Amino acid sequence: MSIPVAAGLVLPACKGIQAGPEPVGVSLVLRGGKAFYQGRWQTIDVGIDFNNRLRFGNNLSAPQVLSVKDLVIAPGFIDILADNSTSPETTYSIFERYKVSDGVTTALQMHGGSPDCGSYYRRFSALQHLTNFGVSTFVMSIRNRAGGLASTRLLIEKNLDEGALGVSHSIEYQPAPYTELLQYAKLAKKYDRPFCLHLRYSSKEKELDGVVEAIRLATDSGARLHIAHLHSTGGTFHMEQALEKIRKANDEGHTITTCVYPYSYWATYLYNNRFGPGWQERYGLTYNDLRIVGSSERLTARTFAHYRKTPKLAAVPEGTMPLKDTVDLALKEDFCMIGSDGGIQFEPRANSHPRGAGCFATAVRHGLDIGLPLEKIIEKMTALPRRLMHPVLKNRGVLEDGAIADLTVFDPEKIRGNATVENPNQFSSGIEVVIVNGKIAFKEGAPAHKGGLAIKA
């Protein structure tokens, strides 16, 4: 393949796949790229064998050799907080196209998911996928169906028995008492799956109360607990204190992780509790500050009232969550990973936060810009999600001999997200090649082979 690169850049793009010697156990070799392998950066041949597993060496022989000279070869990015909740059967192909173009090889919906995971896996396993996929229990939907805690528990257990990757609830959007949340956390512990929690509060006055509640749940249940996007719910105004509380809890033997997306503004549906009475005072915003994503429309009191009755997503202004006071602090912690909390589901202009298309490329760019070592930002998109989801991802998210060949090859000089509030439907720059289960799923700026598999507990 031939990918043009601007003159003067140090890192050239991929060159063509060439015929090579007879294969010696390896079907494809990536040659000339730099990989963080065995604890150090090195230029090494990365091979893919006939079982779609990784092999490493010098001068590997294969029928196909792909020159990726001086590009970075990383484990495929893992998005634990992907979101494809709107008509997934009809939108999944669009959703996966924007994920793979952002370097994502595994898109897991751990912030929502499905209220019927067994049926979900059966239906979606019959379809062709660009990325690996998987879902958690969608407790908000289950509670609406069940009509009581006892039946909710039974349905959650049914989902977990059928392969759900975890238990997920969003208590800012659908509040529940602590005693009920503790039951969900104990189920996660029983099945050794993570309990993923969107915290209860996002106001300056009460956000730390939500962090304290999450730590109490981890303490009382013993579950490994993941806090979704801490910088927009729990650490917007008090990130240092929130991180200190989580750090202290982990030092005491608990397992609490969190994630962030590298944007200084959030977006959510206008009908939910975050835009309930008093939102202007909570966030210091006006109607005109709100933008309908996928357009240039700003709201008025009249249009706000209209859109509150519809499933429209609105974004707050850039800088609402200053990166230096939120994301940048969280990224220093070894318990903080990257999660998009997004997905592009419609074309040509989706009503979706740009993080659904550009989160991971933006994270690499931002990490480098603030001086974070490249291997550290990659770790937050690969090894940390792998650890959270253990054991279902034990052979993914890592460069090891025999690991499953999910790879993302990118140019560290060019990588960046291009999606915007006005036009979220834009592929990221600098993502040169994405390999999913040993086959090229994205190259030359376009999706390719569909070989994604179900990730199921």
User: Main sheet: which strands, in order across?
Assistant: 9-10-11-12-13-14-15-19
Strand content: 15-25%
Assign an overall shape: globular
Number of helices, counting only DSSP H or I runs of 4 residues or more? 13
The biggest beta sheet is recorded as: 8 strands, parallel
What's the N-to-C terminus distance? 37 Å
Uncertain runs: 1-12, 19-24
SS-derived structural category: alpha/beta
User: Approximately how much helix is present in the residues?
Assistant: 25-40%
- How many beta-strand elements? 23
**CA radius of gyration:** 22 Å
Notes on the structure:
The protein is an alpha/beta fold. 28% of the residues lie in helices and 22% in strands. The strands form four sheets. Strands 9-10-11-12-13-14-15-19 form an eight-stranded parallel sheet. It has a seven-stranded mixed sheet with strand order 4-3-8-20-21-22-23, with no helix packed on it. Helix 7 links the parallel strand 14 (225-227) and strand 15 (256-260). The protein is globular. Residues 1-12 and 19-24 have low confidence and may be disordered.
Name a few traits of the molecule:
alpha/beta; 22% strand; 457 residues
